[in-house]
């Protein structure tokens, strides 16, 4: 597959702070490329450079064959953007917002009318097209923004934390749209998120921390880096338990507020053996498959997350949808 | 061609937005109207014996004041767009920064000029006679004045991040722009320190030109601005405003560019 974005050694400094530190990668045409990392890791700065809102201090980016610094107008035509923060004119109606967009992107009038109609129907806002956006809920606004980002048929759609602050149901809804659109229009999707579940939809993920890419692969390959299943123990005496694990099973375990964590290749078989002989006052055992969170912890020793409640709720909503037989993530 | 279309879209949105919120027009006109009716009547009756009518003198000044207020306040749309995120949608669009700035300036100028034109309903109150020709002349002058001041408003707004800061700067700026000018009083009898300050204020030339259009060159001659001993005709006033406006607009465009 051809690469639609080529990023070569970009650096972005703000005064003394290095927000993006010598980053290089390529994005293939038609793929969903995920950018995962904690807040402040340099995700939004990178997106801003790719979509011409910022100039890199050093380095070069070619998008859809155009240089983002030297041919910014052509690049702007090639990309659609959904920003982290809302960017609608809330005083105008949905229709007027979209008309402004087709206007500044010079979509011919007759074509614009057709596409606006199509997009509004696609995001389920056709019936409310003549209402001011300020009467819309957060989810409706987001859908409108995603629809707007597609009006000029961009080659690359940038989604910067597209579902930030939305309720779980709305998030799954929006993802249905995005996946559907990508299939129908064959656009490349560049996604940043710090929700692990969202990152799972990506074909490939770059994990970014302190302005550097520390891993880039498919979600399943990244998860294989963790080295098997993640086991969590609750014990009376965590320190003694860690020592015991090290001596008996030569396992390096980590302690945090939730208990003792370690990874083993075959968790189901390991647990009975562990429990039979364990001395350090075992209270509970749990096992799960590795997540991208675990990958991040493995790579950096830190957790990515913040405000975790939404995550659990999102998982629950997903599980419900999966159970009721609707289309899921791949 | 593309950029021209961009200017139009930016302009059109500002007009559309204003039209949805048109009650705003009257709130910003209330102050100048009060000045004209209350202050004007008060001063006029205090100096009954003078050889000119104060309300007639003040009326073109108040029209200019409405245009100036409307023009500078239009910069707030930029601050508003930044605060609500819409500015990003504008800045990533494939239209040039000059097109954005010019569209914005034209949008603000259209609205401010419309407010100025609405002030013509006070013609009977001011008891002036305006011919069709000088009416058109006035509208033209209002457009020039408002274009140059919306550009200044844009320049300020492009540098300011919050609504509160913009309001504060406006308060600070508005008073000298309007009162250190010939809006309320004639220039030539003033002490030279004040006269000089008035000549530095670009608004003065707008007021002077609009006053000449309303009262006629002959009648207003004693109130006019003299620069280097030369009485400013309308066309020179226009030249001063246009020069000021072009400088402000170029700086505003540059300021939008730097923000990437």
**Uncertain spans of chain B:** none
Largest sheet of chain B: 2 strands, antiparallel
Domains of chain B, number: 1
Strand content of chain A: 25-35%
Estimated share of beta-strand residues of chain B: under 5%
Largest sheet of chain A: 6 strands, mixed
The 3D shape of chain A can be described as elongated
CA(first)-CA(last) distance of chain A? 20 Å
Kindly state the number of beta strands of chain A: 14
How many DSSP helices of chain A?
Answer: 12
Model description:
The complex is a heterodimer of chains A (330) and B (260). The longest helix of chain A is centred in the middle third of the chain and has 18 residues, at 168-185. Chain A is of the alpha/beta class. Chain A is 39% helix and 26% strand. Chain A has helices at residues 43-50, 72-78, 94-104, 109-122, 138-150, 168-185, 196-199, 219-224, 238-249, 267-277, 292-300, 309-323, and strands at residues 3-14, 17-28, 32-36, 58-63, 66-67, 79-82, 156-160, 188-193, 204-209, 212-217, 229-235, 254-256, 259-264, 282-288. Chain A has two domains: 3-222, P-loop containing nucleotide triphosphate hydrolases (Rossmann fold); 223-323, Alpha-Beta Plaits, CATH 3.30.70. In chain A, the strands form three sheets. A six-stranded mixed sheet of chain A has the order 6-7-8-3-9-10, sandwiched between helices. Chain A has a four-stranded antiparallel sheet with strand order 2-1-4-5, covered by helices on one side. In chain A, strand 7 (156-160), helix 6 (168-185) and strand 8 form a beta-alpha-beta unit. Chain B has one domain. Chain B has helices spanning 2-20, 23-46, 54-73, 76-83, 86-91, 97-118, 123-126, 132-159, 163-179, 192-200, 202-215, 217-220, 234-258; strands at 226-227, 230-231. Chain B has a two-stranded antiparallel ribbon. The longest helix of chain B is centred in the middle third of the chain and has 28 residues, at 132-159. The interface between A and B is medium-sized, with 29 and 27 residues.
